[in-house]
Amino acid sequence: MKPFVSIIIPAWNEADVIQETLEHIQRQVNVTPQERLRIEVIVVDDGSRDNTYEVAWPWVDKLVKHSRRRGKGAALQSGVAKARGDLLLFLDADLRATAGEAFVLIEPLLRREADMAIAKLPPSGGKAGFGLVKGLARRGIYRLSGYETEAPLSGQRAVRADRLRELGQFARGFGVEVALTIDAARSGLRIVELNVPISHRETGRDWHGFLHRGKQFAAVGCTLLARWKGRKRVWVSSDQSSI
Fold first, then answer.
1. How far is residue 137 CA from its own chain's centroid?
2. Glycosyltransferase 2-like domain spans which residues (predicted)?
């Protein structure tokens, strides 16, 4: 049986960019030989206040809407719950024209060389942050799992569905990728990191950017503390409607 890939995209207030992202994903789907892969696209609207849901609707196979914002981890969990694929590809909603490049992450899984593939993005062309969040995440992942990563915050990753479901609940908020890498390494998943020419929205060195990175730093710190304490993960209750 040919592999089945579920592409899962969490979105919150992404009406201005999600159509372009989905268009380029669909272009890549159209050039992928149908005898090689089956593909479905799932978008989870995490309680957006704009018309993300309506913009995404024509471009997806499944659309899930949370009645309120519950965070990226819960959005990913809702997408996984609807996915039929044996391979899962997680993508951010703001990749726009570079979204199709992420399909390369599936290849190591198809060759059974890895259980999880993580995208390493090119360096930013402008001034972004000072690397504090990334440094904290990288050091924390290594101390808690022994895995040395170059892309601790990357949300663009592919993973085998059966291995992912062994890991339990996604972490909440900005710490979701950090926790996923720790849990995967601790559980013995084979992880690879690939250079992928993907770009997405970045915050600059302004008040909004510093506020965003401050929240991200706190969330990553809380995630590392929770994994260090070995707190029991609890499945998030369902709160969704779908088409």
1. 16
2. 6-128
